[in-house]
Amino acid sequence: MKTSLKFAAALLLISNLSFGQDITKKIDSIINVSYQKNPEIGISVGFIKNNEEHYIAHGRLNAESTAEIDKNSIFEIASITKILTSNLIAQAVVDRKIKLDDYIDNYLPKGYVLNSNLKNKIKISDLASHQSGLPDIDFGKLIEQNPQQPVSSVTEKTLATIINNCTELKDYGKYRYSTIGYTLLGQILEKVYGKSYDEIIRAKIIKPLHMTHTFTKDFNVKNRTTAHNPNGGIQEFFTWNVTAPAGLVKSNASDMVTYLKEVLKNESTIGKASIIAEKIYYKDEKREMGLGLNISTDDQNTIYLKSGDSMGQSSIICYNRAKKWGIIILLDQRNSKLRQDLLNQIYDNVLK
């Protein structure tokens, strides 16, 4: 009987390995076709299925280097940062620091003075699901002023002025993507924990998971990729400032797979927070939103995803809790169409 059990276990192991290898080959084939068509765009992909990790990468760190992009190469994850922030918000719920239906009024820094029309109106969950109705940062204007570092001039005073001058929430309760909302969530976290956002994300996500290649303020490392705008020109990585909770974390495929593995553990701190974030907080005819997550459901699957675009890089993360898989796609050029096409092809041909 013991021999039979050992033999069955060995067969299962071999089966799982070949299954993983088969998936990797299929994904690699899709990525390779894309890279052949777009050899100027570097790609790093990390995939997890039943706790097994797989990585695929193509391209060089920069035009002058012979070093190849790999699972440890550093990219801007851009707005994927928002799901890290929303996970921290959900952790704060678990820690009983906040409730998602709390109004934001008493959690904002002292410089913020809400107009009477806005008081006891906006909930924390409204910020996290992009339905607060608050005006946002004018990125178009900021890009004109400084195309390399558009958010560098944004300060807490800038944000307070925008909020304090708002007298009406014209589209409250309707989806409108918001950078300022996630910046405010970062400041709410700072107030309830009495620490900076940088300290909080390090203490509650980066350090516990040993994400040694995930960076906040200091990302001057040798294995950093080069960012390119849609026309192929070199673009600087965004420097850290008050808008960090909305999109300024830098990481790589390996660390983001580590994060996905923890997300898929139902009983871990991050996993429990992720389950809170996966609930539907907004729904209309076009979309369903969790806390920072887009929710997509078909007959057989519910997937959670978030994309990101800096001025020079694009990324997307996606996972299926029920089927225990997750994927991160990182591009060294801003190209939202390519990153979405890659995910669609991989999902339709491999994961679905």
Automatic annotation (TrEMBL):
Q: Where is the signal peptide?
A: 1-20
Q: Which UniProt keywords apply?
A: Hydrolase, Signal
Q: Which InterPro entries match?
A: Beta-lactam-related, Beta-lactam/transpept-like, Beta-lactamase-like_AB/R
Q: Which Gene3D superfamilies match?
A: DD-peptidase/beta-lactamase superfamily (3.40.710.10)
Q: Which residues form the Beta-lactamase-related domain?
A: 41-337
Picking any one GO molecular function of the record gives: hydrolase activity
One Pfam match: Beta-lactamase
**Family listed:** Belongs to the beta-lactamase family.
Question: Which protein, by its recorded name, is this?
Answer: Serine hydrolase
Q: Which organism is it from?
A: Chryseobacterium lactis
